[in-house]
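Handout, page 2. Input:
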Amino acid sequence: MSHDLNLSGSPSTPAIQSDWQSGRLAMQGDSYPENSYELFSQVIEWVEAFLEQESRPLTLVLELVYLNTSSVKAMMDIFDLLEEAHEGGRVVGVEWRYDPRNERIAELAEEFKEDCSYPFAILPLEVGS
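Output:
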């Protein structure tokens, strides 16, 4: 499975783009879908497939704004996969970019980061004036 995800976001679901060639998965927007399992199972499958089939680094680039509880749970599953891969010697990393005016999401990103031993950067976005 090397097809890429390219899901356009909606008011309640993030836009998701994966790039198998460059080992990148990006998500932007709000995440409070009715069925987060349906949405995130595709992402989890893609990450699992990439980690199984490739030996190249994998980077997640996140600009998530709001996550409901089930989305948080799904993200934890994804971060756990990365942690497992990292412990097995793989190069993985997360870049979480956030609006500095949104302290809640920065705190959430920090909480995720505490459970991860791989590089996990939390970066404020340049806010256009």
